[in-house]
Automatic annotation (TrEMBL):
SMART domains: FBOX. Residues 508-554 form the F-box domain. It comes from Rhizoctonia solani AG-3 Rhs1AP. It comes from the Eukaryota. This is F-box domain-containing protein. InterPro entries: F-box-like_dom_sf, F-box_dom.
Length: 1090
């Protein structure tokens, strides 16, 4: 009989009459689950159609892995073979099926994987498998008739059927393995062999690291042995560790690179990825002195996975400097472990551990047999749960709880095992200087079931402890109460087996005895996602949450990607806040405009040659030159839109003369900050060496720091101006790019000459005027930048690469997103250059004609400053703020059009949080380390590519959070291509709003009817027609690693006559169109969502 237990589902395999001894039938039993919200369910696969040696489950992916093995076949190479070497091969088939239906799994491109492994003609083969995301690892162990054990391990990507890596065949007695992470595998080995073939007795845990092949055609490489954890050697020759096996459930969580595109059961909670313990089952061979006899004893070593990972991480640097694996001695890692004699504790071979808990049965000794016992094996037994979680162990040591106690391995004698052999093993792990004596907690419960020890095993998951045993007639176990607040569920199974499951006790606490008002006050500090979980697991708390308007408001914020503001509005009550939030959310879901307002703009002087603008924090600012005072901005008109979020009405004001010639400006309404950039003068730049293409000018700039409300020097700026100079060229028009994060003001200077575009970036503390950091020298093709956090800056640029082919020398461009970090100087120390820590590579086009010619990025609003960069300003009181991680990065890409002087534009949309998570671990790495290169295939997942050549936005302010806005000519309903362009603009202009928020997109997918479209980059085009000419579609969408994540699209026809001079902007409450009509009245068209 075969079995497995995973994700609250028990599966038992059995053979069919007259069809051999291999498994052909599977019976599946799904336990009731509060975590997953599922009921009891049972079903069967009456005949799988193949002979199964073993199987494995991954219920999150509805995955059933079936292992079929042919009989060993001689490989015909007997001569010269050593006695221990395999003399046969065995053909293996691995079937990938749906657990629900038994049919080939829909995600698996190849439903059957095949391989051959070394074997023996007279042998018994066993298998074990583990699934982590896309990776399926199968461990093949062959036990020959002469006692030799041979093993091999292979790792596949089960979704595409490709071999990823393998551990080459080895003869060292290993019986099992486990993933420590999605790139690290642990194999416990009981013995090692010396070069002369003699056996040495020191056991070890080997850690292998593997890498996925760089491309689909690349050959899988063997995993590298990077570290080996040595166990203590036997202090006496009478004892050696002869067998090892390990267990660690559940499997580690996959990283973003190895995740599966499959949505599993929705849950209330998941186990923390680091909160797992590795169980090493040890079998020792003991030789009795005098009579020559021997016996075996069993014990268990428990090791926290987090401790192993930390130790391996520390050894990686040492490993890269040499060819051999790093040996980690027992003295260096013993203190985190716990050793327990489990000779009287029975578990079964698998499923006895979950997270930091393990479970076992302790059979009653003969003196404990009940007087009315019907047979020797019917006794009063104990169910034992060990818990190694340090927090829970500490909690157990601080209070008395019935049935739960803390235990120290050195003093544990609960089972009184008077065996001399046990003392030998105890001395190995507890007798030396380094001891496996970390305390743990023990929960013991007496049970009255009639268990027959040879036919019983016990299993555990996050909600249940389950025991299954065989009887000779159909049995049913009715609900029973053994301890207060413990709930038992009796489950009838078909055939000759029954299972009983214990639901772990409900959490009780004095918290619920507090007054209702205090409980709600405590819950208000709870993350909203946890409030939703409480609603599903506790009726009392659900009632409190449902009755509290404040808590409902917090949940509403979370569901829409918002967080409570740091400076909340205090002029309205929570009832009004909740109502306003629901109205706000409802309006974003509709494609019909409920409120459209037109605001006239100040009339522009016909002779004005400058037009600068910005839109931030609900304020639109338009700059113009003044007659007879040059071409640069001198006048500023400001328009504050009505805002429910800020509780502010419409307001208009102007600065008739700024007093300086302004090249560009930026504002931050939360700080009442207006930043003006003035070019004072330009002087010749000396070039004594006559270097061709060298800058021939030096430009001198002054940055003015003023208030947005009054145009006076800003009170928080110690120095109201900052000066800077930079090289430039005579025949060019420089441009500039700003961003403000707390105290940090970043300014990018963009300089163009005849051959290229270059940029420099400086960061100042605008409150003190001091330099913070800079990025130099010039970067080619870097037209913009964005802060990822107040410690991370992203700069997209083009890397020019030389390429020779057919005797011709060509250059190609390669797009990169370079990420920098910096440290703010202290005192009077000079600013240090930002250092690159990572580079996100964009895919290369197959055709050089489509090489990228320009990159620019936009991500608004700026990241929330941390305490290290925060200003003294509280900001404007608000109803809500955008969640810090709820942003999308827009990367505009320009490539060659059909006409050589023209270019086509497309956009890659990248989840902001994904970029940060990929590099945040590099922040504190030592300086001087090379930047980590992250290839496209490692970060393509979650991105979306769109042909935006027919869409128009403007240069800035077109993105806010996860929403992006643009305007285009919607041709999906046009019958004729001959209509005049002006008519098309008037009749068929569409306002398009992209929404990349995963939660909101998923919500729209679940709705049976919705006004919002779901856009699939692989199949859909935004405006009913593809862009003309060459496209990057093949590069980004049609390859294996595609930027094809769906998103929500709200598209609405508009009636405004747009003409040829307009741009569109967005914030959390408005979509704004600025219509510029020279010589006539210009206007703001404002679509409101609050």
């Amino acid at each position: 009989m075969t079995y497995d237990f995973h994700g609250g589902t028990y599966v038992r395999g059995s053979s069919l009459p007259g069809m051999g001894e291999c498994t052909r039938r599977l019976d599946v039993y799904q336990l009731p689950s509060i975590n997953k919200g599922t009921e009891w369910k049972e079903w069967s696969h009456a005949d799988l159609g193949i002979d199964i040696r073993d199987f494995a489950l991954q219920t999150d992916y509805d995955l059933l892995v079936l292992l079929e093995a042919d009989e060993p076949v001689s490989d015909g190479k007997v001569s010269g073979r050593s006695g221990a070497s395999p003399d046969a091969v065995q053909h293996i088939k691995i079937h990938l099926r749906s657990l629900e239906t038994g049919q080939p799994h829909p995600v698996a491109v190849r439903p059957i994987l095949e391989c051959q492994v070394p074997s023996y003609m007279q042998s018994m083969c066993s298998f074990s498998a583990q699934v982590v995301g896309r990776y399926l690892a199968v461990f093949f162990q062959v036990l020959a008739w002469r006692g030799t054990r041979c093993y091999e391990l292979r790792v596949w990507d089960w979704t595409v059927g490709r071999l990823i890596s393998y551990i080459e065949p080895s003869i060292d007695g290993a019986e099992s393995f486990t993933f420590l992470s999605d790139r690290l595998i642990l194999v416990p080995c009981p013995v090692t062999f010396a070069s002369d073939g003699k056996l040495t007795h020191q056991a070890h845990l080997d850690i292998y690291k593997f890498d996925e092949p760089s491309s689909g055609d690349a050959t899988a490489q063997p995993a590298c042995l990077v570290a080996s954890f040595c166990l203590p050697g036997a202090t006496e020759t009478q004892t050696i560790i002869s067998r090892f096996s390990c267990r660690c459930d559940p499997a580690p969580s996959p990283s973003a690179q190895t995740a599966v595109p499959y949505v599993g059961h929705p849950r209330i909670y998941d186990i923390a990825s680091e909160n797992r313990v590795l169980c090493i089952a040890i079998e020792a061979l003991n030789f009795r002195a005098g009579n020559g006899g021997r016996s075996r004893t069993k014990s268990m070593l428990y090791i926290p996975c987090m401790g192993l990972l930390s130790a391996v991480k520390d050894s990686f640097d040492e490993y890269t400097q040499g060819d051999s694996a790093v040996a980690i001695l027992w003295n260096d890692w013993a203190e985190m472990t716990s050793w327990i004699d489990v000779g009287q504790v029975y578990t079964g071979n698998q499923c006895y551990v979950y997270g930091q808990r393990t479970v076992g049965l302790v059979y009653a000794r003969s003196e404990d047999i009940a007087d009315d016992a019907e047979e020797e094996t019917t006794r009063i037994h104990s169910l034992v749960i060990f818990d190694f979680d340090p927090v829970r162990v500490k909690r157990a040591s601080q209070r008395t709880r019935p049935g739960v106690r803390t235990s120290n391995p050195e003093t544990e004698n609960a089972w009184d095992i008077p065996m001399e052999e046990t003392k030998l093993m105890r001395n190995m792990f507890l007798g030396g200087e380094s001891k496996a004596n970390t305390p743990f907690s023990v929960r013991t419960t007496l049970i009255n079931e009639r268990f027959h020890s040879p036919y019983c095993y016990v299993m555990i998951d996050e909600e249940h402890v389950s025991s299954l045993h065989h009887s000779y007639q159909l049995s049913y176990h009715s609900p029973t109460t053994l301890l207060p607040r413990n709930q038992y569920i009796g489950l009838t199974l078909t055939g000759y087996t029954f299972i009983w499951a214990i639901k772990l006790p409900k959490m009780t606490s004095l918290l619920l005895d507090l007054p209702k008002e205090i409980i709600i006050c405590i819950l208000a500090w709870t993350p909203p996602q946890d409030l939703l979980k409480w609603c599903q697991v506790c009726r009392l708390l659900k009632g409190f949450i449902g009755e509290s308007v404040e808590l409902q408001y917090l949940i509403e914020l979370y569901s829409f990607g918002y967080v409570p503001p740091s400076n909340p509005r205090r002029d309205i009550l929570y009832h009004d806040k909740l109502r306003l939030m629901k109205e706000h959310q409802k309006r974003w879901k509709s494609t019909s405009w409920t409120q459209v307002d037109t605001y006239p703009l100040k009339k522009r002087n016909p002779s004005s040659t400058s037009s600068t603008y910005d839109f931030y924090g609900g304020v639109y600012a338009q700059g113009y030159s003044l007659p007879g005072m040059g071409e640069h901005t001198r006048r500023l008109d400001l328009y504050r839109l009505p805002s429910v979020n800020r509780g502010t009405p419409w307001k208009q004001w102007s600065f008739e003369d700024l007093g300086v010639d302004v090249r560009d400006f930026v504002m931050q309404p939360d700080y009442d900050l207006l930043v003006l950039l003035e070019l004072n003068k330009s002087l010749p730049c000396p070039n004594p060496d006559g270097i061709e293409g060298a800058p021939d000018l030096i430009q001198y700039f002054t940055i003015h720091l003023r208030t947005l409300g009054t145009n006076q020097p800003h009170p928080d700026a110690t120095r109201p101006t900052i000066t800077y100079n930079t090289p430039s060229y005579r025949r060019n028009r420089p441009s500039f790019y700003f961003q403000i994060v707390g105290r940090y003001l970043a300014l990018q200077f963009l300089i163009s000459n005849a051959s290229s575009e270059r940029s420099k970036l400086r960061v100042w503390d605008w409150t003190t005027g001091k330099d913070v950091t800079y990025i130099e020298p010039w970067r080619t093709g870097a037209e913009s930048f964005t802060f990822l956090s107040d410690r991370l800056i992203l700069v997209p640029y083009l890397q020019v690469m030389s390429q020779s082919e057919g005797g011709l020398h060509n250059t190609r461009t390669h797009g990169k997103l370079m990420v920098y970090t910096f440290t703010e100087p202290t005192g009077n120390n000079p600013a240090q250059e930002a250092r690159p820590i990572a580079s996100f590579d964009l895919p290369n086009a197959a055709n050089p004609f489509l090489d990228l010619q320009g990159l620019s990025c936009r991500c608004d609003p700026a990241p929330v400053p941390s305490s290290r960069s925060a200003t003294r300003h509280d900001g404007i009181p608000k109803l809500f703020d955008l969640a810090p991680e709820n942003r999308v990065l827009c990367l505009k890409m320009r490539s060659q059009a059909v006409i050589p002087v023209d270019q086509v534009e497309s956009t890659l949309y990248i989840q902001f949080a994904g970029l940060v998570q990929a590099v945040v671990h590099l922040l504190d790495q030592p300086t001087g380390q090379p930047a980590l290169t992250i290839p496209w295939e490692d970060w393509a997942k979650g991105t979306s590519w769109v042909d935006t050549d027919l869409l128009f936005t403007g240069n800035e302010c077109y993105v806010f959070g996860q929403r992006v806005v643009s305007v285009g000519l919607d041709r999906s309903d046009i019958d004729s291509d001959m209509e005049e362009i002006d008519t098309l603009i008037r009749r068929f202009s569409s306002l398009c709003i992209f929404d990349f928020d995963p939660i909101r997109v998923k919500r729209e997918l679940l709705l049976s009817e919705s006004e919002i479209e779901i856009f699939d980059p692989k199949k859909d085009c935004v405006l009913g027609v593809w862009g003309e000419g060459p496209s990057l579609r093949n590069t980004f969408v049609e390859r294996e690693h595609a930027a094809d994540t769906p998103f929500a699209l709200r598209k609405t026809l508009i009636n405004e006559r747009l003409g040829h001079h307009y741009y569109v902007m967005v914030d959390e409450e408005h979509v704004v169109m600025a219509l510029q009509r020279f010589g006539r009245e210009s206007s703001l068209i404002v679509y409101s969502f609050s």
